[in-house]
Specification:
heterodimer; A: alpha+beta; NADH Oxidase; four-stranded antiparallel sheet; two-stranded antiparallel ribbon; 44% helix; B: alpha/beta; TIM Barrel; Methyltransferase, Methionine Synthase (B12-binding Domains), Chain A, domain 1; 4 domains; eight-stranded parallel sheet; globular
Chain lengths: 209, 788
């Protein structure tokens, strides 16, 4: 993934080239974040039957219909990313906005690389990553996943009373593993990590051209 | 410290217990089950584990109270008191008839503190206080461990020190990169916890013994307290759960710690009684060496930056309202961002420490100080110097400060020292001592040196080490007392060389009443540094001042190979050029294109040429912003560019405000903005704020996670006609609805505009908002309609 391109997409530049000012912010932000993030993750693999208590709702059930085993994982960029963004918000909101998009893209990139690693480790056919808040998979399951993964102790990831992950640039997700190829379905806005912060949805559009 | 522990620490070494959760799992506790519940459902197993550690040779065992805080117990049927009393009872029973001591064990709350998270420092303190009150009569000591946030362990340590007389051992958990998850440095942990009165400091969990040597060594360089190691038995195998470091390996890796002088040994996750018994045998053969003392070194720190005062370090003086109209206005208007900007400017100019003074007769200094300290430590890791004469202000600031601060200041007057030094001691700060007393500033260097020694002695009598007393020999104005300059310099040299104390000096006063003050200031600064000045208090934004310090560090061979100097100045020619906008750049163009420096320079030119500031705002600034807004609406430009335009407008506004400071306010009306309760996504709200401010509105920003009633109170207090609410999560829309409801019920007449990605026009209508804004531009349009 090209993190900078992905960040531009989050910022609403659907294929447009950034202006000089934004391009400069993008470069500066990328190096500042690279120096400040400290990505950590933790993973557990269990049989689907054992994961029952953490799998709530029709959408996750459908998502895992063909899977026998389930991976739960949590990944975070660490509190350094939050700190950099918070500081930028004092001096330069445009920079803060660009940093925010870059950090989101970095989180996705980190999850991608983690998923690739898990594929090599466990084999089988993977579903895509499904997170609390997608479809009818309730955000309220977040504390249980954090506890199940022991994520507070292992990677310093916590969850607030309103189920927001802190550090902010973090993801928890579920991946199903099956013995044979499974239909992946189409990913749409309902199952996108950016759905709550998306420049396109605001205008009733999507990021896909 | 109670006698049993004191005796124990007088021994060459002390042995603690090992892993508890992992032992419980072996006895049938399932992953994800709460280990504190085991005190009730498996008390015999808990007791058996304690016994096994006592038999293995532990001098101290931890009761099974690690997660017994109200946040973690909320989903169980037990209270903190239930768990703490029950667990300590079991541990006591297991230790009966032995010399083994029982510790009340305290782990993290499970929530991150502000500013990284949402838990307030004061709330964390209360949570820990509850645990300590429940356990203080049953425990021999308090063990605070596995902490990754210095702020949280400070809350726990303070709660222990203030609510019981038991000794307190403190541990933090570090990662391979040498920091905790939240960025805390070992040096900062050692300095801060030592200052706050911990009795021993250690590392536990997260890493294996052979991965912690460097971190433990770093802690030892910053404290004289006993140091402790409780490592993990490596990492668990994801499939089998077996830990990677055997007992034999663990023990042999710990031999090196005896050579380093570690005094207290134990184990964390994955270690078993076998490991502890192994440690006992190993320690019979290897007596830990006696460590050397820290000596006359002083360091101050935030949680993530430690400043060693080994060469001149800059204390930035700009956070201070004295003689600054804009700063005073900012304080009166609660404009914290203005103050934060003052901080960030000094950070980039090369300050090492920031002085913080928010004293103004018209405001509540204590409340403001706490707010500013909390906000500052959210955005900069420079250590702070708390500048106030009021003991209650100093104490409030030190209490919420996440690190080891400096207090500015005391002087030779007995009453002043007796008021302030106990506070300095309690919170483990360093302190500035001014060489004056009730008789004023003595003229002669010798007399000032005498006061300096008096202050150092008095500080020592309170238990503050001499190394943490920084003496200010006081700068007088050269234009009125020309001969006095040398007295000051002589005093600096004597205090440094004869008394062995660190020195601090406010430099800028020297040139009062003279032309080209910078020249006098920087020359005096260089003279003072050569006499032994450690901590010049200066305006680092003036290149001649901070530059003199950087140059001195090169010339005095502190800045090795001039590396820092070259990094700072190596390629500055282009950057240093003053901004001269090209002729074709108009103010409107600069704003539209987001050229903030040009916008500022052009505004100044216009003002100097006599242009009316309202004309500039109405005829140039706002139309230019409108054009950028239109382009944004048409997808010709994107959000970052829109905000860059707003930034340029802000620079223009800044120039106008600076020119008009103290005169009539230029505001098109007040607006309250808030991200609703439960929601902490506030970047969207902050964008709206930036834009609104640059259209000339005064924004009262209540921040994020704002309780419903607070919005209502602010709307009434400031009599605003427009309130903007933001929510980015479906789960917090309820709080938005409730806020609007309370606003309506209050009878206060105002419009409400709502925004946030999950909102729709329909939903906005349903919850009774007056306007749904799909973006920042919409909000501005609505504000124009309501406020003009």
């Amino acid at each position: 993934m090209d993190v900078k391109k992905e960040a531009l997409r989050y910022l609403g530049y659907r294929g447009h080239e950034p202006d000089a000012g934004t391009a400069e912010l993008l470069e500066r932000g990328y190096s500042e974040l690279k120096a400040s993030v400290s990505p950590h993750s933790c993973v557990k693999l269990i049989s689907k039957a054992d994961a029952d208590a953490l799998l709530i709702g029709a959408d996750i059930e459908k998502h895992l219909a063909d899977s026998q085993r389930v991976i739960f994982f949590a990944a975070t960029l660490g509190s350094g990313a939050d700190r950099v963004i918070r500081t930028a918000e004092i001096r330069n909101m445009a920079y803060a906005l660009v940093l925010d998009a870059l950090a989101s893209a970095m989180t996705e990139e980190y999850c991608d690389s983690l998923e690739q690693q898990l594929k090599e480790q466990y084999g089988g056919h993977f579903t895509w990553r499904f997170s609390p808040g997608y479809g009818d998979y309730p955000i309220e399951v977040q504390p249980d996943i954090i506890r199940f993964l022991n994520a507070e102790k292992l990677i310093g990831l916590t969850v607030t009373e309103s189920n927001i992950l802190i550090p902010r640039k973090s993801v928890t997700a579920v991946i199903g593993i099956s013995e044979h190829e499974q239909s992946k379905g189409v990913r749409g806005c309902a199952t996108c990590n950016m759905r709550e912060n998306c420049a396109f949805r605001r205008d009733g559009q999507t990021c896909r051209e | 410290m109670n006698n049993k522990i004191k005796k124990l620490l007088e021994k060459d070494c002390v042995i603690l217990d090992g892993g508890f959760g992992t032992e419980l799992q072996k006895r049938g506790m399932k992953p994800g089950e709460t280990s504190e519940i085991m005190n009730f459902v498996r008390p015999d197993d808990v007791e058996a584990i304690h016994r096994s550690y006592i038999e293995a040779g532990a001098n101290i065992i931890n009761a099974n109270t690690f997660g017994a805080n109200r946040l973690k117990l909320a989903r169980t049927e037990y209270t903190t008191a239930d768990v703490v009393k029950k667990a300590l009872g079991i541990a006591r029973k297991a230790a009966e008839g032995t010399d083994t001591l029982v510790a009340l064990d305290i782990g993290p709350t499970g929530q991150l503190l502000e500013p990284a998270g949402t838990l307030a420092f004061e709330d964390a303190y209360d949570i820990f206080k509850e645990i300590i009150e429940a356990g203080r009569d049953l425990a021999d000591l308090v063990m605070i461990e596995t902490m990754t946030d210095l702020y949280e362990i400070k809350a726990a340590l303070l709660a222990a020190k203030e609510n019981c007389d038991l000794p307190v051992f403190t541990f933090m958990s570090f990662e391979k990169n040498g920091r905790t998850f939240t960025g805390t440095l070992p040096s900062a942990a050692a300095l801060t916890l030592t200052g706050l009165g911990s009795d021993a400091i250690g590392v536990n969990c997260s890493l294996a013994p052979d991965e912690l040597y460097g971190i433990v060594g770093e802690i030892m360089r910053y404290t004289d307290l006993p140091v402790m190691v409780k490592a993990n038995a490596g990492l668990p195998d994801p499939a089998t759960g077996a830990y990677s470091v055997s007992a034999e390996q663990y023990v042999s890796d710990c031999i090196k710690y005896t050579e380093m002088g570690v005094q207290v040994y134990g184990g964390c996750c994955g270690t078993t009684p076998e490991y502890i018994a192994g440690l006992r045998e190993m320690l019979k053969a290897h007596t830990p060496v006696l460590r050397g003392k820290r000596g006359n070194v002083s360091s101050v720190c935030s949680y993530s930056r430690t400043v060693d005062i080994t060469c001149p370090k800059i204390i930035g003086e700009r956070i201070n309202p004295t003689g600054k109209k804009l700063f005073k206005e900012a304080l009166k208007n609660n404009d914290i961002n203005y103050i934060l900007n003052q901080a960030l400017e000094q950070v980039s100019a090369g300050a090492d420490i920031l002085d913080v003074n928010v004293g103004l007769p018209e405001i509540d200094e204590k409340e403001m100080m706490v707010r500013v300290v909390k906000a500052l430590q959210g955005i900069t890791d420079l250590p702070l110097q708390i500048d106030s004469t009021k003991p209650d202000v100093i104490e409030a600031a030190l209490r919420v400060y996440n690190g080891k601060a400096i207090v500015n200041s005391v002087n030779g007057e007995e009453a002043v020292m007796e008021r302030i030094l106990p506070i300095v001691k309690k919170y483990g700060a360093a302190v500035v001592g001014l060489t004056l007393d009730e008789n004023g500033i003595p003229p002669k260097a010798e007399q000032r040196v005498e006061i300096a020694e008096r202050i150092a002695k008095k500080a020592e009598s309170y238990g503050i080490p001499r190394s943490d007393v920084f003496i200010d020999c006081l700068t007088l104005t050269v234009s009125t007392e020309q001969k006095a300059v040398y007295e000051t310099l002589r005093a600096v040299r004597t205090v440094k060389e004869k008394l062995g104390l660190h020195t601090v000096l406010g430099v800028s006063n020297i040139s009062f009443g003279l032309p080209t003050r910078e020249l006098i200031n920087s020359t005096f600064l260089s003279m003072a540094m050569e006499c032994g000045l450690d901590l010049p208090i200066i305006n680092p934004n003036i290149t001649a001042m901070s530059g003199a310090v950087f140059a001195y560090r090169v010339l005095a061979a502190h800045d090795e190979n001039a590396a820092e100097f070259i990094e700072r100045y190596g390629q500055s020619d282009a950057a240093k050029k003053p901004t001269v906008p090209k002729a074709e750049v108009t103010l409107a163009y600069a704003i539209e294109k987001g050229l903030d420096k040009d916008a500022e320079a052009l505004t100044k030119q216009k003002l100097e040429a006599g242009a009316d500031s309202m004309d500039i705002i109405n005829n140039e600034l706002i139309p230019a912003l409108d054009r950028a807004g239109d382009d944004f609406g048409k997808n010709k430009i994107f959000l970052p560019q829109l905000i860059l335009s707003a930034n340029a407008a802000q620079a223009c506004f800044g120039a106008i405000k600076a020119a008009m400071a103290g005169q009539t306010q230029i505001s098109k009306g007040k607006i309250v903005l808030a991200t609703v309760k439960g929601d902490i996504h506030d970047i969207g709200k902050n964008i709206v704020k930036t834009l609104l401010e640059n259209y000339g509105y005064t924004v009262i920003d209540l921040g994020k996670d704002v309780p419903e009633q607070k919005v209502v109170d602010a709307a009434i207090e400031h009599d605003v006609k427009l309130v903007g609410l933001s929510a980015l999560m479906t789960t917090t829309l309820g709080a938005m609805e409730q806020t609007i409801k309370l606003l309506r019920e209050s009878g206060h007449d105002c419009k409400v505009v709502v925004g946030g990605a999950v909102l729709t026009q329909d939903y906005a209508d349903a919850i009774g908002a007056d306007c749904y804004a799909k973006d920042a531009k919409d909000t501005v349009d609505f504000a124009k309609k309501i406020l003009g």
